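re: that chain from earlier
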Amino acid sequence: MTTEFIRVAAAVGLLAVSTALAAEAPAAAPTITLQTTCPVMGGPINRKLFVDHEGQRIYVCCAGCIDTVKKDPAKALRTLEAAGVTVAKLQTTCPVMGGAINRKLFVDHEGQRIYVCCAGCIDTVKKDPAAHVKAMEAKGVALEATPTAAP
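^ sequence. v structure.
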């Protein structure tokens, strides 16, 4: 064997190994850019003002923008997505186990409702609810507000 043949064979081998490793590498998590501006007026959002549409939460800046978004939520979604914003999704999975939520099982924390999949997850969430809220919000999950009793 010539030296040139050995070099070519080694290069081909390295290429094959690097290709195999790249194929097995996990895909990078998508970049999440949380909504900070209103799709109607462009002002800073108020997290207490929003429209839920088909499992997504569209925040607005003022009460006046709610009706505009309700009239054409698809337009508001297009505006946000065109700006590279990750539109918040309503919670559908348990923050502990990752399974589907059971809407009868939850922990309320500082005005937000954290749903879980089973009774066993309630104690886990109660140990540090703020951490679960923070982790879900960082993933673009919007939590429901804790229902208030009628006066």
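Strands lie at 46-53, 56-60, 88-90, 102-109, 112-116, 141-142, 144-145.
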